[in-house]
Design goal:
The structure holds two protein chains of two kinds.
Chain A lengths: L7 H7 L1 H5 L1 H15 L24 E9 L4 E9 L17 E9 H10 L4 H12 L6 E4 L9 E4 L4 E4 H7 L1 E4 L3 H15 L14
Antiparallel strand pairs in A: 1-2, 1-7, 2-3, 3-5, 3-6, 4-5
Chain B lengths: L1 H6 L3 H13 L4 E5 L9 E5 L6 H8 L5 H20 L6 H8 L9
Antiparallel strand pairs in B: 1-2
Helix pairs in contact in B: 2-4
Classes of the chains: A alpha+beta, B mainly alpha.
Chain lengths: 209, 108
């Protein structure tokens, strides 16, 4: 089992693929650059060549994740993208407490477009916003293009997070997609920007008046 | 799983980007100001260089060519910086349209 820290030994385990394989490193940078500028091809590992179909990885899309609806007390199966770190939910890693999988539901962009229309927003505003969403410029959303295996465009809502126990996930979910290397990096970029803004504009050193 | 982790680092990905950016003093963070009250609610603020254990490890690794590491880190940091600069909020009206009835948007 690998542990996650950033000492030299851990680095040798985790980084050599990038740092020693120069062509692969260049491909990653090129693909990441393209995706970060709005390209829509290359987000996913092709289902044909996806060797992670049985694995649970950060950035995975799954069908059958469970959302608890507090108002009605019901549970609803949804499509979602995994935010949990791959190692934290890896079955090989022993832990004292059973893990939960953190995920964000993914919804169809066409349905969001319909909501914008229904809200009476101007068409040019909507088009501009959709363009921002597609270029990954909206911090609270991660855009997923219509590319095999997704039949149409989706977005992950990063302000709408849920968790499901691992044992429930095992029995009720099936995998939709695995992000490519560049797609995964872009996803982590997005998470870091959305959730890890150190400058919150609040001086915590000041005592209560 | 070790092979998997080697091929798809997870914790390291963010640390790599952030650590590299910090090392290069290039990273910026977005400040969220009073919501919905400003035309540009995000402000890019440059950061001063800070210590990074991760980049310290990278910089002192004898097994990896530090020049390649620095170059790669710099390139990733540049991408991250450029990406972060382009971020914007969804906007109050658009958020309201989505979150007024979120559950009905879910796909089974």
């Amino acid at each position: 089992m690998a542990t996650m820290s950033f000492d030299e030994d851990a680095l040798r385990l985790q980084i050599p693929y990038y740092l020693t394989a120069d062509p692969a490193r260049k491909v990653l940078l090129k693909d990441l650059d393209a995706l970060s500028k709005g390209a829509t091809a290359g987000y996913f590992i092709s289902p044909i060549s996806d060797r992670f179909q049985a694995d649970l990885l950060q950035g995975d899309g799954w069908r059958g994740l469970q959302v608890y609806h507090f108002a009605s007390g019901t549970i609803k199966p949804v499509r979602g993208i995994v935010l949990s770190n791959s190692c934290d939910v890896a079955p090989e890693n022993a832990r004292a407490l059973p893990p939960k999988i953190i995920f964000a539901p993914i919804v169809k962009l066409s349905n969001i477009r319909a909501r914008f229309d229904a809200a009476g927003l101007k068409n040019e505003q909507i088009e501009a916003k959709l363009k921002s969403i597609r270029s990954q410029s909206v911090t609270s959303m991660f855009y997923l293009p219509a590319e095999n295996p997704l039949d149409e465009e989706h977005v992950a809502l990063l302000d709408d997070l849920h968790s499901v126990p691992m044992e429930i996930h095992r029995t009720s979910s099936c995998k939709l997609f695995t992000l490519s290397m560049a797609g995964f990096y872009l996803f982590v970029f997005k998470l870091s920007i959305h959730f890890c803004r150190l400058h919150e504009g609040i001086d915590r050193t000041q005592p209560r008046q | 799983m070790i092979e998997l982790i080697a091929a798809r680092p997870t914790h390291s990905a963010m640390a790599w980007a952030l650590g590299a950016a910090v090392m290069a003093t290039q990273v910026s963070y977005l400040i969220r100001q009073d919501p919905y009250e400003m035309d540009d609610p995000y402000e890019i603020v440059s950061q001063v260089r800070t210590y990074s254990r991760f980049m310290h490890s990278v910089g002192h690794s004898s097994a990896i060519d530090s020049i390649d590491v620095d170059q790669f880190a710099s390139q990733v940091a540049e991408l991250y910086y450029s990406f972060a600069q382009r971020q914007e909020r969804l906007g109050a009206e658009f958020e309201a349209a989505i979150f007024s009835d979120l559950e009905s948007l879910y796909e089974a």
